[in-house]
Design a protein that fits this description.
The chain is rod-shaped. The mean pLDDT is about 95. It has one helix and no strands. It has one domain. It is mainly α and about 40 residues long.
Amino acid sequence: MLSTNWFRNVLVLSLVAALSVTLQRVTRLRQSILQKAFTGEL
């Protein structure tokens, strides 16, 4: 039972880390698009 909980925790932590990285990328992309829109480059 312990190994199942350990595996589940590792899986959840991995998913959270991946989501965090993706969210940072999306935020940077959004800022870039907004900047281009406001400077007339879009």
